[in-house]
Amino acid sequence: MPNAVQPSRQLLVLLMALTALGEVSTQLIIPSLSAIEWVLAAKPGSSLLALSVFVAAFGAGQLVLGPLSDRLGRRPILLAGLLVYLLATGWMLLASSMPEFVGARVLQGLGACSALVMARAIVRDVWQEKAGPALAATVIGMLCAIVISPALGGLLYRLGGWHAPILLAFGFATLTLLVVVGRYRESNPHLNPQAGRMRSLAADYFDLLKAPSFRALALTLAFTYGAMFAVIAGSSAVYIGLLHLSPSQYGMTLSAIVLALIAGALFTRSYITRLGPNKVVSIGVTLVAVGGLATLATYHLFGLSVLGLSIPQVLVTLGGGMVLPASVAGAVIPNAHRAGLAAGFMGFAQMAGATLSGILLSVLQDGSAWPMVFLNGSFAFIAWVIFQGLNRRQLAVGAALP
């Protein structure tokens, strides 16, 4: 049966918006975290839990929703997820305590994860073997959200308080839901009635992870995003609390750093067909490692400064902009018959890296920038070691085969 949904610019824009939803949900509120703690009478630093639980729910939900969409279809999972997202965001606006706010963030993360994993699976459904450049384009949507949202969140906080950024996220999700209802038809014509069943789900993932190349891409994605998340989660306290930038100055600084993410994704979109996903990931993870270690060395030798922290991070984000789309493309494209399963695990791996990074950042907090800088450099280096090590092992095994 031919695919009922054809590639189009309009569909790609919708998928870019869906991919961006998770980052919009987090990046918009980062400049307001200190104010949220004060208003909700919570202790300083407690808002980091709201970031971490969102990421944990965002990742864990994909393990179930991805394969479930292979059985039920992308559209029903997407619609249900967006509705949960809107209910949770409304709850955040009404929260009267930090535990209540954190609980709402868990539900918001579950709702938002459906948007990311469905977008990636839909790209594989529609663009098929040529999905690499389209996946890179959807990541550009996510990266644009990372670039724009912190500065916009800081401006909205200054104009309307901490509710204003959350209201914008609510409006963005509402508009996206209306477009999905009106413009998106089911793109998975080959539903698998056995997919997503709990009794076989672990075996399905084990079968997926038997491929060394899939393991290499998943772990590299996890530690690369963990390196970036250490800065995403910790930068508010460092730039505002230690370097004394205003929320709007902080938002603009973070936006300038992550502009390199878009450059990396644009490189991936242009060259992934020619170079292949593995080569693009190799280039990207090397840049991430160099940037993370340079940040660590600069801090150790010269102390904390805006330029000393920000400039090396441009290399991290440039490489991250390559690793994110290329690793997903390398994992999803060979798994056409279980695109939801593969996309779900890659999303889980990405968020697992961020969750581990966020938990360690919270545990290691000592009032300085050291925990953030240390985790950024460590995760970046581990990502590089894992990718190079697993790929060398795979090449050695391949050469030994007759």
From TrEMBL:
Membrane protein topology class? Multi-pass membrane protein
**Annotated localization:** Membrane
Q: What is this protein called?
A: MFS transporter
Lineage per the UniProt record: Bacteria, Pseudomonadati, Pseudomonadota, Gammaproteobacteria, Pseudomonadales
Instruction: Report the residue ranges that make up the Major facilitator superfamily (MFS) profile domain in this protein.
Output: 11-395
Query: Which is one Gene Ontology cellular component term of this protein?
Result: plasma membrane
Where exactly are the transmembrane stretches of this chain? Answer: 45-65, 77-94, 106-123, 135-156, 162-181, 216-242, 248-268, 280-302, 314-333, 340-363, 369-387
Q: Which SUPFAM superfamilies match?
A: MFS general substrate transporter
One Pfam family name from the record?
Answer: MFS_1
Q: Which parts form a coiled-coil structure per UniProt?
A: none
Q: Which GO terms describe its biological process?
A: xenobiotic detoxification by transmembrane export across the plasma membrane
